[in-house]
Amino acid sequence: MITPPLDGIYLDMCCFKRPFDDQRQPRIRREAEAVTIIIEQAERVRLALIRSPALLIENDANPREDPPLAAALWIDHATVEVAHSPEVERRAMELSALGFAPLDSLHVSYAEAAGARALLTCDDGLVGLGRQHAGLLRTTIKNPVDFQQELAT
User: Fold this and answer.
1) Cβ burial 19-40 (10 Å sphere, 16+ → b, else e)
2) Which residue in 49, 43, 36, 127 sits closest to 28, CA to CA?
3) For the chain, which terminus, N or C, has the lower number of CB atoms within 10 Å?
4) Which residues fall within 8 angstroms of residue 142, CB to CB, at 6 or more apart?
5) Bridge partners (DSSP) listed for residue 142
6) 9 lies in a domain?
7) pLDDT by residue (tens digit) across 78-98?
8) pLDDT value of residue 67
């Protein structure tokens, strides 16, 4: 198991893609700004971004050229890399049984394996499942706006 600093965070792919979404919607703009601040904090070595094989696979599956390239650059700068393992796979299966989608269960499993302080996502359903099963998870699942506000306090 990889143990990042206490401030290790795992951004799922929707966070990495958020800055490329339509910024005319206030929520999307706030989330994009929060993600940008979080990535800047990681670049200043105040946070440790975590990357996993699931992020790379999901990014490569995107048909649009520019966002995957930019996301790949951010993912490449992650300072903590968590590898696939039988434990990650077993945990992902447990999470799937709780109602997490297959790819989400992998993201949560990788975040837990890396000892992430939080998994950040713009997916309300995933945040809701994180709250519902908080007692069973070894990381918290948060919206990037909420996490960025915690950093500011």
Assistant:
1) bebeeeeeeeebbbbbbebbbe
2) 36
3) C
4) 118, 119, 120, 121, 127, 130
5) 120
6) no
7) 888 999 999 999 999 999 999
8) 57
